[in-house]
Amino acid sequence: MDEITLGCDPSPDVKSHDARVALSGKITQRRGYRVSGANLEEARSDLDFGAIRKVLVVDDSRLQRRILVASLRKWGFDVLEAESGDVAMAMCADDPPDLVVSDWIMPGMSGLDFCRAFRALDSEQYSYFILLTSKSEKQEVARGLDAGADDFLIKPLEAGELRARISAGARILDMQRELSEKNRLIESALEELKLAHDAIDKDLIQARKIQESLVPELTREFGKSRVSLLLKPCGHIGGDLVGMFSPGVNRLGFYSIDVSGHGITSAMMTARLGSYLSSTHFDQNVAMEPRFNKFYALLPPEDVAEALNCRLMADAGIEEYFTMAYAIVDLRNGHVKMVQAGHPHPLLLRHDGSTEFLGEGGLPIGLLPNVSFHQTETHLKPGDKLLLYSDGFTECHLADGGLLDEAGLRQMALECAAGRGGSEFLDDMFWKLTQVMSPDEGMGDDVSAVFFEYNGP
């Protein structure tokens, strides 16, 4: 094992590094390396101290400093010296070293006080700190660790042990700096993700405004009767769509649509369907046809479903499909014609308090080619109400672990219908839904509904 043998104190007039090494005592050469500028990098490469490049030696003993400095320079380090803690602090303020080797007992600022002050410096780079001491008691070691020291060396020093401790410190610094670099890269990536998220969020907010424009009116009266709409996406945008249109007096159509999936793709599909069922551009509405170049007539609901199915199946690359309940009403007599394409069964609320679920189910639109859809008919009497809704109601997860299902929807509708109508009824339905849904699941799907109140011709 190498030893650092104390020698005479070298003269300050001696400028040569080799001469200072010789004056400070015999230092055994490792693997035959001589101390010269040409061998420093080779020696360092052989020893491999990783992240440690610059070392600060702090000791009030000039002789001890020179002995340490000689060994450290021999191993390839850039070494600085300080005779006191105060001088060392001034040197570290702007450019902290990678490693500090400091004596514990020094006049003025002790090594312990210097260690505390050094750790208090505002530096992004961690430095390894070794205290030199003749103290080996556990309490003293604990004091040093509390002050911020990383390691200890007991005097008298041996070069081999010093080299081993520095190598251990280098491994720790390498890991710490690698971790810091990874953290920096992660922070940079997170910042880029935040910017991207903010841009997407801004686009989604604008997309929601566009989607809301597809439902310009939430309630509208048609003679004595009234249609009210509810559209609550579970995110910025959703895949549900509700609407109504009337090509003339006493003729009314309204629909509830639920596109498969969620998010942007579903929302784009609702925008497309909104144009197919436009309430303002009748020439683009697939549910109408012109008659005698004077007015538009409502097509049978099953024909509308088949036309929409053909359009979706003709578009290659579109994997989305949708469910729909679409009804037309003759306001003169309350005659309702309706198609149910995979959508939840519409709920009929009679004026006498009785209820009935309508429809026979059917296949979703856009799922299979050449599908026929069947029409359901019923007659409404003044005071009757018809509710079309998405499965965001019936498949809502409740706090007890179950689903709301049709029975729960029926009970909720009866409670809300007592003395309430129009948008107030739908708002009350949605509020009650939020009160019974599971707090863990939350609103996992879009919620939408159409509420038609028939009050006679």
Descriptive account of the structure:
With 457 residues, the protein is of the alpha+beta class. The chain has 2 domains: 17-183, Rossmann fold, CATH 3.40.50; 213-453, PPM-type phosphatase domain (Phosphatase 2c, domain 1). It contains 12 helices and 18 strands. The strands form 4 sheets. Strands 6-7-18-17-14-15 form a 6-stranded antiparallel sheet. A 5-stranded parallel sheet has the order 2-1-3-4-5, with helices on both faces. Strands 8-9-12-13-16 form a 5-stranded antiparallel sheet. Helix 4 packs parallel to helix 5, helix 7 runs parallel beside helix 8 (264-276) and helix 11 (405-417) packs across helix 12. The longest helix has 54 residues, at 159-212. 35% of the residues are buried. The model is unreliable at 1-46 (pLDDT under 50). It comes from Ruegeria haliotis. InterPro entries: Bact_Sigma-Reg (IPR052016), CheY-like_superfamily (IPR011006), PPM-type-like_dom_sf (IPR036457), PPM-type_phosphatase-like_dom (IPR001932), Sig_transdc_resp-reg_receiver (IPR001789). Keywords: Hydrolase, Phosphoprotein. This is Fused response regulator/phosphatase.
Gyration radius, in Å: 41 Å
Q: Summarize the helix and strand pattern as letters.
A: HHEHEHEHEHEHEEEEHEEHEEEEEEHHHE
Percent in strands: 15-25%
Report the CATH topology name of the largest domain: Phosphatase 2c, domain 1
Number of helical segments with 4 or more residues: 12
Mean pLDDT: 85
Spatial separation of the terminal alpha carbons:
109 Å
Strand line-up of the largest beta sheet: 6-7-18-17-14-15
